[in-house]
Structure formats: C-alpha cells, structure tokens
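Researcher: Last one for today. Full complex below.
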Amino acid sequence: GAGVSQSPSNKVTEKGKDVELRCDPISGHTALYWYRQRLGQGLEFLIYFQGNSAPDKSGLPSDRFSAERTGESVSTLTIQRTQQEDSAVYLCASSMPLAGGLNEQFFGPGTRLTVL
Amino acid sequence: RKEVEQDPGPFNVPEGATVAFNCTYSNSASQSFFWYRQDCRKEPKLLMSVYSSGNEDGRFTAQLNRASQYISLLIRDSKLSDSATYLCVVILTTGNQFYFGTGTSLTVIP
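Model: Here's the assembly. Have a good evening.
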C-alpha cells in the first residue's frame, strides 16, 4: 500500500519568507509526528498528533513553528519568517498505536528545506 | 541529559566482520525499544524491535539490559549493504514521544 508521502521534496526559500510543508500519512494511522534533522545530526522531535486529542507541541523550537492536522489525515507544518538555522530535512512519520503502547513509525521521504 | 545516547562512530569494518553497537537510555520508565536504519539522505526505516529476552533476525541480534539501561545491536558477517546509520529508539511508559539516538555510522569495507 501507499506509504507516507511528503511535499515538496525540496524547498529553497529566502530568509524571512514563510514556508508550508505537507505530510500525507498512511491511511488509518491515527498518530502523526514531525521531526527535524539537521545535516549529520539526529532526529529532533517537533510535534505529535493523535486522533482528536490536543497535539503535543513540546518540541516546537519557537513560535515561528506551527502545525495543523485535519482529522486523521493530512498535516501541514508551517515555518514563519524562516531563518538560516531552519535549514534541515523535515521528516513526517505516522503510526498506528497499539493498545497500551506505541507501535512502529513509518517515515516519509522528508522535505529538504534550504533557507538562503 | 539526553534520553538516549549512542556512540556516533564511525565504525569502519571489513566485509564478514562482526560489529556491535550499544545505546544507553536515561529513563528507567522506558517501555519499548527499537533499532532503525537510515541510509544516506534517506528516511529512517525500522530494522527490528528489541524484546526483553533478546531477539534475532538473520544476521542481526538485538538485546536489552534493563538493569544497566542499554540496548545493543550485533551484526554478524557484515555485508557492504549494511553500511548505514543505525538509530536506537526508546519509548517511555508515559508520554507520546519516540526518543531517537543521534545514530551510529557504519561503513563496511570490501
């Protein structure tokens, strides 16, 4: 079946511009995560959505970052007034939580953001 | 202190070698453990879950030591195709987060 998809695959923008990144999770997966991965670094948790519950935004680095999810489908991550330090690969993952625990995450191919 | 710590390597080993990676975690409330593999400029993919009793999948063996709070991954008879970054992942009994280590880089040399 279809995996997690993300768009665009690459985005080059100028400092100060806003960008919007999109994630389409695997159908039926109620949990959705956004991560940031800078070059040569590990994954940095940004935000987590689970069904209709309030999202866990504890990983968002500043108020320039926000994310939304429509029901249990598409999610968008918005970065306002981009800075050069925002340059990274932004990865989305979806998961179907098991009773009593969390299950494997399936990752999308990521969006490579470059802020000039 | 980071939730998960890994030796970043790099590990450069010849084909056919056995190599082991360790990953330590700080929170004793950690519930579930995984190893993910990430190829260069690709997304992470699940390699294997780590069970309390240890588990094996072909050339790969994962072990968990709760007393010392570490997990390990052993790769036997290394292949060129094993070259990648290996990420350990920990999930706490509370909360929603998957905590990823920064990864250990492996290069298998012909």
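The mean pLDDT of chain A is 91. Chain A has no helices and ten strands.
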